Amino acid sequence: MADIIIKNGNVLTMDPELGDLKNGVVVIDDGSIVEVAESTEATADTVIDARGGVVMPGFVNTHTHAGMTLFRGYADDLPLASWLQDHIWPAEAELTASDVVAGTNLACLEMIKSGTVAFADMYFFMEEVGKVVESSGLRAALSYGMIELGDAEKGKNELKKGKGFVNEWNGKADGRISAMYGPHAPNTCSKDFLIKVKEQAVADNAKIHIHVLETEAELNQMKEQYGMCSVNMLDSIDFFGPDVLAAHCVWLSDGDMDILANNNVNISHNPVSNMKLASGVAPVTKLLDRDANVCLGTDGCASNNNLDMFDEMKTATLLQKVDTMDPTALPARKVLEMATINGAKALDIKGGMLRKGYNADVIIVDMNRSHLTPLFDVPSQLVYSAGGSDVRTSIVNGKVLMDDHKVLCMDEQKIIDDAKEAASDLVSRVDAKN
Ligand SMILES: CSC[C@H]1O[C@@H](n2cnc3c(O)ncnc32)[C@H](O)[C@@H]1O
Ligand SMILES: [Zn+2]
After folding, report:
1. Looking at the predicted complex, does its ipTM rise above 0.95?
2. Which family is this sequence assigned to (predicted)?
3. What is the CA(212)–ligand 2 centre distance, in A?
């Protein structure tokens, strides 16, 4: 007897070998998918009727700062430098562990409700973040965000904290949590520090999550400091490889794109944040033409202002179309691949598609809705018309986290109340300081 059978669904497997099934079943046992077919002989403890819905792999959000949900709408419509230095960093200086717990709980709740099953996070108080993720049921690749600013003593401390986190959390929560090193960016961490981080990551067999060439200001600063851009500097220290998740990658030259693609670097494209902070347009179609693994992230809620991967997919495709003046650029299925298969590859998760032996990280999107009618093409409908609130059911590691819009693993109202209180207390403390 299996754990779960999902039946009567329009199954978007995202598996190029199997293809999609107009009316199929997905059988789940012991955290994994054991069958994807048109029908099954199996029986299960739980049978979920997905009639009128699309059954698909859940989304992988490859760049977040989950705790920043507390800053949703806090400092909008500002340039990145002032946004970070004058508003976000002073507010973050007041953050406590319990604030990050409240913010991360809110983020996990929002992600579960909108179909995300896994995310890559870089922030502070990561032990607390780990505990929240563990109890939420989600999957995550977590990193303690290290900012060293060329201060060797600070660097030592930061690396010690990063290492402590990696050693304690890698593989926790039945393997749902992996731990990465998180040097913030090449313009906030020195070359010497980045060399040490890479050595430590290799020694610990851990991956690295870093912001790269998000802004023109970073490009100019790097040219002034090193006589070369961030990608060339990182390449000169053999930083790149398939173990690196590089967020943003907006200001790339053709040569930079070759370096990233040739080194199998995973690139998290974060279009909403890049647009909101007017950072620029990442050359996604050129990267995909080079077979680079481009995945999709929301960034934190202070620069987005939500964690909805449907919004991210739509924005990604529209932005490439207008940037290239080509309406065929980044079609719906390709952007869905970025949000599922490519994200899973970046985080080394056996997921991103519905295939026998893969993680049972499955969502059901309700298509029986006015704004999703008529239904000619499932990928198009998901990317151009659907939204996070259309997700009806969410399953991670074979556990139902949300059933028919009811979140089972978290107390929704308490999380909202706690986050409201934490955000308001935090802002009062910040205001009192200034
Ligand atoms: C060291 S933990 C992460 C650090 O990054 C800050 N942050 C959030 N969004 C961005 C972004 O788009 N670019 C650069 N840095 C960002 C966050 O506030 C934390 O301080
Ligand atoms: Zn970021």
Report:
1. yes
2. Belongs to the metallo-dependent hydrolases superfamily. MTA/SAH deaminase family.
3. 10
